[in-house]
Design a protein that fits this description.
Number of domains: 1
Strand order of the largest sheet: 1-2-3-4-6-7-8-9-11-12-13-14-15-16
Mean pLDDT: 87
InterPro entries: PorP/SprF_Bacteroidetes
Largest sheet: 14 strands, antiparallel, barrel
Strand content: over 45%
Shape: globular
CATH architecture: Beta Barrel
Organism: Lunatimonas lonarensis
Distance between the termini: 41 Å
Structural class: mainly beta
CATH class: Mainly Beta
CATH superfamily: monomeric porin ompg
Helix content: under 10%
Number of strands: 16
Low-confidence stretches: 1-8
Pfam family, one: PorP_SprF
Protein name: Bacteroidetes-specific membrane protein
Length: about 325
């Protein structure tokens, strides 16, 4: 009945949303002004049968002669006990505009091919699969219903923008602006709702601490960065509010996810506390791990969520050349 009438779908999400920059906003394509590669893995609620597993990999680079960033993102997501399987391939492009001294704006565009498969006959059991003389025995081969349960192929279009200075950034994204039809039923309609995202942060310097006590006078960078990420898709809303503390090369993060002031069906709208630790090495390698401690009624027996991110930023081809811009994007790499 749900498939035949109307259903709501949600995109996967990452707690380390800045460690999945192209997943968050196409305007981040080429934002490092160098070539970057990365992978992200999330395992949500491993203690339940109805868990979620998401993997993505990306690569992006900056074409200096065109002042343009380009990127490619591949994502694989498995949802719930029925095993809704979604695979997507995305291409994106961004353009960097200098608004004033130390102030920039980057619009971005993304086109995504999506294939969704619910494993209609592999994962679900129908009445004609059950032997009435032995209901708990082996399942019988069912008769496939024409037009039901075939994989769905979608084309999704998305837009994004990112404004930043040396210490502040503000981004917005509109995913699935064409709201493609994701129904598994022939001639059915279940449009993938648009997903809006607003994300911002402010980087507060805590001064430099010593790294090497020798004649090189090398200093350790330290800063505190509060961040916020709000998402809305269909009837669902989510807010991540927290901060990073960075003391080179180690970074710690703590966030709260939920909207306690906006209950859902008279239930408190709270989800998780997110704790994170990461390493940002001078070589360009970044590694992060986070754990979501579930504070909703689902409880910690759900297993929370584990997330791992790895990225590598390739060194510039001409290390001695002047920087492409004086303002470095203050957004963390996690």
């Amino acid at each position: 009945m749900v498939l035949a009438t109307k259903s709501f779908g949600q995109d996967p999400h990452y707690s380390q949303y800045y460690a999945a920059p192209l997943f968050l906003n196409p305007a981040f394509a080429g934002s490092e002004l160098s070539t970057r590669v990365g992978v992200n893995y999330r395992n949500q609620w491993p203690g339940l049968d109805a868990n979620f597993s998401t993997f993505s990999a990306y690569v992006d680079t900056f074409l200096e002669e065109y002042n343009t960033g380009v990127g490619f993102l591949a994502t694989n997501d498995v949802e719930g006990a029925a095993g809704l399987h979604s695979t997507s391939l995305s291409g994106m492009v961004s353009y960097e505009l200098r608004l004033a001294e130390g102030a920039y704006f980057r619009p971005g565009f993304q086109a995504t091919y999506m294939r969704r498969d619910i494993g209609f006959y592999e994962s679900l059991v129908f009445a004609n699969n059950i032997d009435p003389t032995n209901p708990f025995g082996p399942l019988l081969p069912g008769t496939e219903l024409a037009g039901f349960g075939e994989p769905v192929n979608l084309l999704s279009l998305s837009l994004g923008g990112l404004f930043f200075t040396e210490t502040f950034w503000l981004g917005f994204t509109g995913h699935h602006i064409n709201q493609p039809n994701q129904s598994f039923v022939q001639d059915g309609f279940s449009h993938l709702p648009m997903k809006y995202s607003f994300h911002a942060g402010y980087r507060i310097s805590l001064g430099n601490g010593p790294m090497k006590r020798d004649f090189t006078h090398t200093y350790r960078e330290r800063y505190f960065t509060p961040t916020v990420n709000f998402k809305k898709q269909g009837p669902f809303e989510q807010l991540d509010l927290g901060a990073y503390f960075y003391m080179e090369p180690i970074l710690f993060g703590l966030w709260y996810r939920g909207l306690p002031y906006k209950p859902v069906e008279q239930q408190s709208n709270r989800d998780a506390l997110v704790l994170m630790v990461g390493f940002n090495l001078p070589s360009g390698l970044n590694i992060g791990y986070s754990f979501d401690y579930t504070v909703s009624q689902l409880g910690i027996q759900s297993g929370g969520a584990h997330e791992i991110s790895v990225s590598y930023v390739f060194p510039p081809k001409n290390p001695g050349a002047p920087p492409k811009r004086s303002t470095i994007l203050p957004c963390p790499k996690f």
